[in-house]
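**Discrete fold encoding**
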Amino acid sequence: MSLSPDQNGLPDPCPLTRRAFGLAAGAIALHSIAPKWARAESAPAVSAVTVSPTEITYLMADRAVRSSTFQDMTDETKGMVKRFWVQNWRQPDESFEWPIKVPHKGKYEVTLMISAPAGTPIQIAGPKGDLACVTTALPSFGYSWDRIVLPTPISLPSGSSTIRTRLMQPVTTGRFGAALKSIELLNTTERPAMNARIKAFKSDTSWLNDAKFGFMCQCGEWAYPPHGPRKPWPNMVDEFDVEKFAEMVDSTGAGYAVWSATWATYFFPAPIKAIDAIMPGRTSRRDLIGEMAEALHKRNIRLILYYHLGHDTNAANGSWWSKNWVSPDDKALFLNNWCSVIGEVGMRYGDRLAGWMFDDDLVYYPAPYERLGKAAKAGNKARIISYNPWIQARGTDFQDFQFGEGLTGSQNLPASARGIWPAGPMKGLHAHGNFQIDGPDWGISKPDTVIQSPHLTPEKAIQIALDAADRDIALSWNMLMYDDGTVSDASLKLLQQVGQEVRKKYPKANL
């Protein structure tokens, strides 16, 4: 399909997903990266959802009693662990309905994770009355995702009842109609305490305003040389020249570097005992991350780690995921393993690790994000974290900055906001984007890969960088890297030119 304009009125960046390893940059049809549509008739039997009096309760669209005309973007029968949404919602006589059990009566805050054209009225019907809201989000990638908190709570009596949502007028535009991810319920008596915990959880992201931009790459066990096979694990780690890498990052003027701890395969470049306990052979004796953090710190550059869950089941990744995953409805093993690994990594590096970028919130959500966040900030409460919701709205407020896959900036963020989104799908998060300088992918996971020429001219790249810097939108510029740390001379030169212009206007601060 042709790409829809983003919320700046500009064409959306692409590709749509960083994990579609075989897809080249450019306009990508959504169906080429998603599972085949599963009709609602194939949905599992619906069980009553117990509404928690103290925690967020998630009413997932793919677990609702719903109209047969809907399309479910998740096909679990094919082993898909990413949980998308239900779409093709077009008529007022089509609905989602959940049977619920309420141990404690009360008023419950309602949050919709929804995509519908701006101005679409939505009704939420409960056992003691109806609520309504109107969508406002602008289109992006053919959707209009938003996170809407209704100003009026819904009254729920104790016992069994139902919650139902429907359109109040037809949706006649758009290829996908309206779409629903979930409805979240929270007892209003818990909101003040949760707001206080969110406020206490949030880290100061103002250093991103000083950093302005970062160098990003996805290089690890999966990486190849320009020609021939890749190195057996952990040779890539043992032979990597950290000082050369840090010097290259420094030459661009970047304020931080994003290094991918994992990506196309789950092999971690450091001795992490929690990983060894899950599956031996996936770590290295050399602490590449620790050495990298020190080398960057000497050059006044912070380190952010990108983290992929390793849910790919291709031969190259082996059986890692089977040691972590049961099902979307049983995440206990996954969550426990994740907290053990992330917590140990955080404690190991302390303040040398400035941030986390956690990919695939489509796998995490719904999740106990407060618990995950505590593990992610172990050893450094100032550490900033982010989850990638893909094209959806933020899945939680227990995070600090926008993941921003494909974002190159936005005219919608006023300079007076100091980088924090004041409203909209990313409300409360520090604006951040990451995108490809070159290609054909985010990392080199295939033999004999030829790095493409930069996608941007120097003039356009500098324009993007300066506009983002003026608005305090941090941009992470991703370039392909071979297994020995080699990059495209043209791509490196482009980022060096960008850095020179940014630092002329915004000299590098002490980070």
